[in-house]
Write a structure and sequence with these properties.
By secondary structure, the protein is α+β, with helices and mostly antiparallel strands. It holds the Pfam family JHBP.
Length: 296
Amino acid sequence: MDDVDRDLRDLQFRDWVGTARDRRKWRLLLSEAKAHFGSLRHPIDNGWEDYGPYEGLYKIGNISNNYAPLTKEDLRASKRGAQVLHNVKTFIETGFYTLPPLDPYYKDSLQPLVIADDKHLSLTAKLSHFNVTGLVAFTSDLLEIRYGNGRVDYRIAVPQVKINTIAHINLLVGRIFEFRADGVLSVLLNDVVVRGALQVVQVPRNGNRVYQLQGQHTRLHVGDVKAKFEPYLKGPGHKSSALGYGSDTWDDCLHLLLEHINEFLAKLVFHQANEILDGPTVNQINAYLLGADPTM
């Protein structure tokens, strides 16, 4: 009886997903996600899928549009800031002061990713044991600090970023049928280039003032994206997984999930940077970047 029930659910799943895929929002979500990928996926060795290049633009808050020429003060701060960024490599694996270990970067659990949520279709993912490696190999060829308006422009490149996480994916169709896929999601991001601008402001903190990010506009280029999902549920009764792993429907879900993981990483960088900046005061940072008197 259990096998019959599973087969029936599989049939219902295909019917409902076929209906849901025709709905405008589902098509819009897919078109927005897939537009950022440069080619259709194709399978490669050992269960990996190659999704080709990826382009994404993520905006948090506002950035000053005043791209003024750098002053002598700006040039000095930019040069010293670039040296700080270079020195981060020394502590990226162990952490230092308010800088946590960043390679590997590990989180027990993350906030759920809500990919779609309406009365016809709900797609969510919970990621746990989230592990990122490869950041230690980063290089930076651009850092411009403009004290006049608090804008910071940067460009960072990483040869390869590896993400491994346990993914709990839930698809609810028509608020009636629920399907789940639990397993290990691995993602390889090759030739990563991040170009962006930050808006930095001063805020009061414990009787002092600290710098915090108020805005971040980031353009992400990935030369090639590879992903592999290894479901926990296997066997003929489950047809590899409850979501029909390997099907076009699963490909749609994974496109959306990858899109949201990249967006999540942009937000993670934003909040992590503010945690790091929350330690040193404005005067301490200025003392280093500009050679100012830290007691002023």
